[in-house]
């Protein structure tokens, strides 16, 4: 692991009695692309603004490169930010915008010229130096903001919802481009987003926040496959959650008795929880297999199989989302990839089906 | 949604007619009469004959009147400038005050508006006169008494006091409209507060600053009560001269001509401001 660049230690930010950020501790390594992910109002932007120095923490401290930033104003921090609104200065040309920070730092004129040119080339804005912001598209304005921040060669680049204002196509293109730019310049990126796809696709590591509390910090795949708790499981992707009681817990197998499912969930691994405790099984829609069922047929002898009836289906292009009602009336989300252009044995509304899953498919959550 | 008035002529004229009638009868008609008088001469104590003469305007070319016009412009400009120096930090402070305090601070700025000008001016006289509060306090530390009243200093001080809200309010609304993230971006890029104000706040708030300057300058230019009460024998401004011609001198044609010259000066100021604003917009659009 690379050396720690940012060390956030028990940071709390209160606005009146409301704790926007509640005792968050987090270490971010040099060269990481870190995403702070959470629903709006979860405190992620407040945390980012405290990194920038635009907000002062109520308690705790932030170290950058081992230096306490508590009393350092924003203009003296080795940190630059790309604002959600881009905050491109409307009265300055593209060139003047990008060169602003360097002029403040009293960098020599020809060096400013060279670095601005380099930064604009990096974000593919060469040739637009003399334009004013109102002659640029939203995407171009964002590139100006990015170049303006990167040209200062910060230790950390902060990005506040960088893609939220772009349209869908551009957003997708910008995702990989941002990741490429980050690799190229090697600067540590800390991004705030409410869009889980964005975070999973771009970040090397994500922190999920909810109500000011950091819920889980992990690599994107771990976040998806091994969520810590119900909030993370539900927020990242789509999930079926079943509340149940842990009845068997051996090193090589375990069983959850779930009233919501109307039967047991068998696992081929142990759960480090107390037998008899309430737990939740999180089952992703794409991890559930679906097969045709003849009305009145006896249940097969296998475990983790339940009968159901397709109640609703949404065709989404790349996949189809089925809502399957099981005996107790609960609806379960199941997705199937549309591999062929038309599925030979597709499922239609009202059709009886078997649902089944692998004993390692559910994630067991203790909270 | 903006609606074309032509789509609902009936309601448009119902709303439009009364104020239009009011303005015509009580503003445009008297103004036209005064304008006509400025080309006339007195033929008796109460009658003016409109003869088309330009002699009234010719009399204004007299150095006495020119110097009073110049002095009025200088005082108004000085007042506007001092209002800007005092008002800008005030407007800035209100803009960045917490929301709860904002309403109270704005109220404090507007409060003098609801007090009669005459009362406020007499209050100021009580503060400034030789036995006034300022000189009493200065007396304790062995200074003075200073001549603070009935001179040009008192006039400018009074004008700044009276006209300050005219500048603070438009300034505040211009500053309040600024996108905060632009200021934060400037700080983030390494600029201090003073630098941010110079490079970001002032250029972006300039249209608001200019219109604020204008609506301070215009009433200051036509001030009558303040120079009359606070000033000395040499602090006459043009409005006092106009008043004297309409009343004591009973020379309505000459007073009318003076009034119109004052109004043309005002028009000129407005035109200049509009031109500057238009050029800025154009420069912003092309560049």
Any overview of this molecule?
The complex is a heterodimer of chains A (367) and B (287). Chain A has 8 helices and 20 strands. Chain A is an alpha+beta fold. Chain A has 2 domains: 4-233, P-loop containing nucleotide triphosphate hydrolases (Rossmann fold); 239-365, Beta Barrel (OB fold (Dihydrolipoamide Acetyltransferase, E2P)). Chain A starts with a strand and ends with a strand. The mean pLDDT of chain A is 89. Chain B is mostly helical and 287 residues long. Chain B has a single domain, classed as Orthogonal Bundle (MetI-like fold), CATH 1.10.3720.10. Chain B is built from 12 helices and 2 strands; from the N terminus they run αββααααααααααα. Chain B has helices spanning 9-37, 55-60, 63-95, 99-110, 117-128, 133-140, 152-177, 180-188, 193-221, 225-230, 238-246, 252-285, and strands at 40-42, 48-50. In chain B, strands 1-2 form a two-stranded antiparallel ribbon. In chain B, a hairpin with a 5-residue loop joins strand 1 (40-42) and strand 2 (48-50). The model of chain B has no long low-confidence stretch (mean pLDDT 89). The A-B interface holds A 52-54, 73-76, 79-81, 83-85, 87, 89-91, 93, 100-101, 104-105, 130, 132, 134, 145, 148-149, 152 and B 179, 181-182, 184-192, 195, 199-200, 203-204, 284-285, 287.
How would you summarize the topology of this molecule?
The complex is a heterodimer of chains A (367) and B (287).
Chain A: E1 4-15, E2 18-29, E3 33-37, H1 44-52, E4 59-64, E5 67-68, E6 79-82, H2 94-104, H3 109-122, H4 138-150, E7 156-160, H5 168-185, E8 188-193, H6 196-202, E9 205-210, E10 213-218, H7 220-225, H8 230-235, E11 240-249, E12 254-258, E13 263-267, E14 278-283, E15 289-292, E16 305-315, E17 319-326, E18 331-337, E19 352-356, E20 363-365
Parallel strand pairs in A: 3-8, 3-9, 6-7, 7-8
Antiparallel strand pairs in A: 1-2, 1-4, 4-5, 9-10, 11-12, 11-14, 12-13, 14-20, 15-19, 16-17, 16-19, 17-18
Helix pairs in contact in A: 2-3, 2-4, 3-4
Chain B: H1 9-37, E1 40-42, E2 48-50, H2 55-60, H3 63-95, H4 99-110, H5 117-128, H6 133-140, H7 152-177, H8 180-188, H9 193-221, H10 225-230, H11 238-246, H12 252-285
Antiparallel strand pairs in B: 1-2
Helix pairs in contact in B: 1-12, 3-7, 3-9, 7-9, 8-9, 9-12, 11-12
């Amino acid at each position: 692991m690379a050396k720690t660049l940012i060390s956030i230690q028990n940071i709390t930010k209160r606005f009146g009695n409301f704790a926007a950020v509640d005792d968050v501790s987090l270490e971010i390594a040099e060269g990481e692309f870190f995403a702070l992910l959470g629903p709006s109002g979860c405190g992620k932007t407040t945390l980012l603004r405290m990194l920038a120095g635009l907000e002062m923490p109520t308690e705790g401290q932030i170290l950058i490169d081992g230096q306490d930033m508590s009393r350092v104003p924003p203009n003296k921090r080795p940190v630059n930010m790309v604002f959600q609104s881009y905050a491109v200065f409307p009265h300055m040309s593209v060139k003047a915008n990008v060169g602003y920070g360097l002029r403040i730092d009293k960098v020599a004129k020809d060096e400013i010229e060279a670095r601005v040119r380099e930064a604009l080339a990096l974000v593919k804005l060469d040739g637009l130096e003399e334009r004013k912001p109102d002659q640029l598209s939203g995407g171009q304005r964002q590139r100006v903001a990015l170049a303006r921040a990167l040209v200062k060669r910060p230790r950390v680049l902060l990005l506040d919802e960088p893609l939220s204002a772009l349209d869908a196509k551009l957003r997708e293109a910008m995702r990989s481009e941002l990741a490429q730019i980050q690799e190229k310049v090697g600067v540590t990126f800390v991004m705030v987003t409410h869009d889980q796809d964005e975070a999973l696709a771009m970040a090397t590591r994500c922190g999920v926040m909810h109500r000011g509390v950091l819920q889980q910090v992990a690599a994107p795949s771990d976040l998806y496959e091994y969520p810590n708790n119900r909030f993370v499981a539900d927020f990242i992707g789509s999930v079926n959650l079943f509340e149940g009681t842990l009845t068997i817990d051996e090193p090589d197998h375990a069983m959850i008795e779930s009233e919501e499912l109307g039967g047991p969930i068998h696992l081929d691994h142990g759960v480090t929880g107390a037998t008899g405790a309430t737990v939740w099984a999180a089952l992703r829609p794409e991890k559930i297999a679906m097969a045709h069922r003849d009305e009145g047929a006896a249940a097969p002898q296998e475990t983790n199989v339940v009968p159901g009836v397709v109640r609703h289906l949404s065709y989404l292009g790349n996949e189809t989302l089925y809502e399957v009602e099981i005996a107790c009336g609960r609806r379960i989300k199941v997705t199937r990839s549309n591999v062929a252009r038309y599925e030979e044995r597709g499922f239609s509304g009202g059709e009886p089906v078997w649902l089944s899953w692998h004993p390692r498919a559910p994630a067991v959550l203790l909270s | 949604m903006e609606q074309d008035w032509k789509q609902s002529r009936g309601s448009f004229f119902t709303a439009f007619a009364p104020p239009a009638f009011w303005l015509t009868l009580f503003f445009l008609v008297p103004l036209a009469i005064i304008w006509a008088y400025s080309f006339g001469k007195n033929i008796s104590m109460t009658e003016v004959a409109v003869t088309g003469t330009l002699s009234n305007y010719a009399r204004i070319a007299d150095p006495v009147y020119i110097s009073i016009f110049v002095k009025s412009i200088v005082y108004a400009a000085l007042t506007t400038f001092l209002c800007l120096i005092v008002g800008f930090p005030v407007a800035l402070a209100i803009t960045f005050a917490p929301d709860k305090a904002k309403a109270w601070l704005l109220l404090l700025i507007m409060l003098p508006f609801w007090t009669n000008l005459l009362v406020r001016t007499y209050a100021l006289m009580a503060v400034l006169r030789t036995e006034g509060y300022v000189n009493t306090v200065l007396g304790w530390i062995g200074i003075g008494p200073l001549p603070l009243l009935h001179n040009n200093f008192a006039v400018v001080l009074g004008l700044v006091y009276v006209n300050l809200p005219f500048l603070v309010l438009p300034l505040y609304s211009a500053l309040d409209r600024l996108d905060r993230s632009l200021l934060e971006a400037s700080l983030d890029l390494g600029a201090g507060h003073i630098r941010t104000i110079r490079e970001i706040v002032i250029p972006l708030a300039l249209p608001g600053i200019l219109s604020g300057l204008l609506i301070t300058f215009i009433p200051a230019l036509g001030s009558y009560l303040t120079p009359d009460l606070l000033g000395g024998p040499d602090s006459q401004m043009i409005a006092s001269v106009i008043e004297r011609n309409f009343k004591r001198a009973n020379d309505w044609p000459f007073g009318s001509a003076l009034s119109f010259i004052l109004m043309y000066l005002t028009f000129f100021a407005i035109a200049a401001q509009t031109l500057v604003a238009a050029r800025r917009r154009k420069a912003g659009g092309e560049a």
